Amino acid sequence: MTMHSLKYMIAILFASVGTFVFAATADAAQIGIGTEQKIVQNPLELERQAIELERQQKIEREKRLAEEKRLAEEKRLAEEKRLATEKAKREQAERKAKAERLAEEKRVAAEKARQVEAKRQAAAKAEKKQQAASSTTVTPISTQGRVIQAESTAYTNDAADNGSYGGRVLTATGHDVTDSIYYNGMRIIAVDPSVIPLGTVVQIDGVGQAIALDTGGRIKGNIVDLLVDTKSEAINWGRRHITITLP
Fold it and tell me: Over the stretch 98-153, which tens digit does the pLDDT of each residue have?
């Protein structure tokens, strides 16, 4: 065999091997197509996918934790705001109640002071009237005295009609008529002091002796007001003309 023949055979051998390798490669490329055979993946690719999955899961966990933390913080702030609002309302209510209590205490104290002052003034006025009564000189009646004609009315010793001083009804001269309409057995009349001086004892026809111990805002001139026991007596007396004998 010549060298030329040997080279030819080698060339044919390489060509056959190349054709076989090409065919095998083509067949390998078609493996799995139209069949149920699974393609085996690269282990490095699987590891890369696992790392990526773990990274994504970590991101999701961090997002979830951050959201939970945000919601918890919002809930905490809302609770703090609610508590602060309730505290402010409670403090405002306490301040209002305290102010009202202080105002009521002040009002009660002022009312008590007013009552004490009123009693003091009433006591002072009563004392002054009593002093005036003690200094009033009773003028006895004379049988030869002056006679006048007067118009008369009647009034009672009811505190509601006259007012009182420490619960007692007093005349203008300070005489206490709470329990009696008499003074030393004589009837009591209210007069105009410019006509009949206070303390004057007079004789009234149909009544008897009376003493001028009181006055009245509507008693002017020849008018007298006779003190009686009850309102019915005052009504029955009405208005009548009387004859009065003065000292």
Answer: 999 889 988 888 888 888 777 777 766 666 665 555 545 544 544 457 899 999 99
- The verdict on residue 34 lying in a domain is no
Q: 139 CB contacts (<8 Å, ≥6 apart)?
A: 197, 199, 200, 201, 247
Could you identify the residue written with the tokens 């001269």? Answer: 173
Phi, psi of 103 (to 5 degrees): -65, -40
- Compute φ and ψ for 176, nearest 5 degrees: -80, 115
Question: CB–CB of 188/181 below 8 Å?
Answer: yes
Amino acid, res. 38: K
**What's the whole-model pTM score?**
0.45
C-beta of residue 228 within 8 angstroms of C-beta of residue 155? yes
Q: Note whether 142 and 209 are same-domain residues.
A: yes
**DSSP 8-state symbol, 196:** S
Domain span holding position 79: 71-135
